[in-house]
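Changelog excerpt: complex records now keep ligands as SMILES alongside chain sequences, and the structure block spans every component. Example after the change:
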Amino acid sequence: MTPEPSPMSACDGIQPRLSEYMDRQLDRIQADQVQAHLSVCDTCRGVADDLDRLRGLASSLGPITPPAHI
Amino acid sequence: MSSSNSSNVHVLAHTDMALAARCATGEPGGFEELYRLHSPRLFGLACRMVGPTDAEDLLQDIFLNAHRKIRLYKGESALGMWLFRLATNLCLDFLRSRANRSAQMTDSMDAEDARPTEGGRGPILGVLDRLDLERALAELPDGCRQVFVLYDVEGFEHREVGAMLGISEGTSKSQLHKARMRLRARDWQPLGPIRGRRHDPRAFSDERV
Ligand SMILES: [Zn+2]
């Protein structure tokens, strides 16, 4: 058995902070905690990757030209 | 939202005041120019805030209001921002009355959405495109959709989002995370291939500056 590096209790504390981590809203200590966890936890790393992809896609949504009849 | 540089700001302010004056005095072509310049961003906002079905009516409302109030514009902010705030307020009014009508304001998240998720497979991956995301926005509860649109799509800071929506910065942050987690947890079709995860904590840390 491989030892489990990231028990769910740790993930419980990390995932609610992932958006703030990505957006650089956390203080240094908290950001370091999240970063350390992500380096050992595939699950949270996967969530973070998805949120980041989502964020990138959202920022690429541009203006929409209204139909001419308005 | 910061402008590029101070000389541009000066030129823009001058142009904005001139255009507003042309609209206020009913000069031919003035309002058409205002519409041509600003309707795409405001229509995008309306589509994402209230959905494409109601966005056309709402856009008319927005410019009707702008027409009535343009005399009040004194150049304190860019004209585009002035219009954006006016449009945001009308979107919020619309959403409130729609929520009252249907009494289905479900602003609470299911508990499992916020809980840590199993496995390394991301449901979004590379297959999600802009159109998918535009459609999915409609399924979000009003509160977190508003924050997602203003922060992630429009690029405002939490302080600005809070001011526009009348909520605290902390609420803006938590609603944003709810929106992102909810979108992530959505059953995207078709799902991309299962993919291995990288171990690079810096992979996304430098993108949004
Ligand atoms: Zn974890």
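DSSP finds nine helices and no strands in chain B. Chain B has one domain: 3-185.
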